[in-house]
Every structure is written in C-alpha cells, then in structure tokens.
Amino acid sequence: MEGLHLEALTIARGGVPLLALDAAVAPGEVLSVMGPSGVGKSTLLAAIMGTLASGFSMTGRVWLDGRDITDLAPEARRVGILYQEELLFPHLSVGGNLAFGLPRLPGGRAARRARVAAALAEIGLEGFAGRDPATLSGGQKARVALMRMLLAEPRALLLDEPFSRLDAQLRAQVREMVFARAKARALPVLLVTHDMADAEAAGGRVVDLG
Ligand SMILES: Nc1ncnc2c1ncn2[C@@H]1O[C@H](COP(=O)(O)OP(=O)(O)OP(=O)(O)O)[C@@H](O)[C@H]1O
C-alpha cells in the first residue's frame, strides 16, 4: 500500500498503555492528530520516526509505501519532521541550512548550489542563500525549515504543531505552503495540532487520541 500505514500500533510508558491506533494516510493526504496535552501525540510521532525515548515501548508495525520500516534506524526511514521551533542552524547561512538537507549529489558544489537556488525559488525566497537565519521573519524561517526537510526527500511528513508560534494570518499562509508542497510531492502527512482550523484546512480527517 502506498502512503503511511500505522498497523495496530500501541505505545506504553513504563509498561502502562498510553495509546493505541490503527490508521492509514494516503499519498498527498493529511491526517490531523488531536487530543489533550499529555495524551501522547508527540510520542506517536517519535515512534514513527524511530526515536522513542527510553521507558517507552511499542507494538505493531509502521509501513511506508509498502515497506515495513518499524525496525529501521531513524535516518533510514525517510520520514521528515517539523517541530514548533524551526531549529535552523544559527552558525550556517540560509543556503548552508538548505544544503545540509541535501543527499550527496553528483556534480559537486555547483550542483548543490543550483539545487539550493531552486529550493529557495520554490518557497519565494530567491537570493536569500547568503542570509543569516537570525535576520529572517518567523514565516521565512518556517519556509526554510520546511524546504530543508523536503530536500532530504522524505516519503512521509510529520508535523508537530509547526504553526502554533505564528500569528493567525501568517499561520494560514505557512500552513497552505506546507500542505501544497507536501501534496506536490504526494507525501502522506500526519499533523499534530490543538487547532481545529488547522485540521479543517488540512481536509478535515481527524484522529482524536483523547
Ligand atoms: N522523554 C520522556 N520520558 C518520560 N516521559 C515522557 C517523555 N516525553 C513525554 N513523556 C510523557 O509521556 C506522555 C505523553 O507525552 P507527549 O509529549 O507525547 O504528549 P502530547 O500529547 O504530545 O502533549 P502536548 O500536547 O502537551 O505536546 C506524557 O505523560 C509525558 O509527560
């Protein structure tokens, strides 16, 4: 099956059941994950990334494009994630941040520079390669973080409240850009959010862990 499939997933903390979920997200589709604080939304994303903290355990399988990725190392899963904070590297330029996401390319530096320039154009930030990330607005940082993640060519996208720090107008803009870029790449998206407006903009499919 194409897309992301969480098959009979259960997560426990210290042996105590935290959550159970069975869900499929098709390529280009967004599934919103909602529920009260502490219910395990971020933990669910960690389980899919392969980065569960010690003390947590899981059963079930995670499938991505028909491949069982449950036991793969995090970096081999091809799952991208965006957090509430953009987490751009402060000591690298915007272009350096983007190049960091790039897999090794034939063609060396020139090819990398061209790829970064094309990526900046895709998010409306032509000419920003040399900029210090500290000089960017919140919305610009969010776009760079999105593109850095996409350049690693993930096959699925996890979003952990990436819009919650932005004001209402910017939030809608960044949200549309994230969904549009994910759709253009036919990525299945799991969106953790507390905001019903996010879930509605995402297409309205919601799983409530509460
Ligand atoms: N590294 C950790 N070690 C131990 N317990 C943790 C760890 N991270 C989270 N927890 C606990 O696991 C439970 C689930 O946390 P999680 O962050 O997944 O919830 P959440 O639904 O994402 O909450 P929020 O909406 O507040 O972000 C909580 O009780 C939390 O305190």
From TrEMBL:
Entry keyword set: ATP-binding, Nucleotide-binding, Transport
Pfam families: ABC_tran (PF00005)
UniProt xrefs under SMART domains: AAA
Gene Ontology MF annotations: ATP binding; ATP hydrolysis activity
InterPro entries in alphabetical order: AAA+_ATPase, ABC_SmlMolc_Importer, ABC_transporter-like_ATP-bd, P-loop_NTPase
Domain ABC transporter per the UniProt entry, residue ranges: 4-209
Protein name: Putative thiamine transport system ATP-binding protein
Organism per entry: Rhodovulum marinum
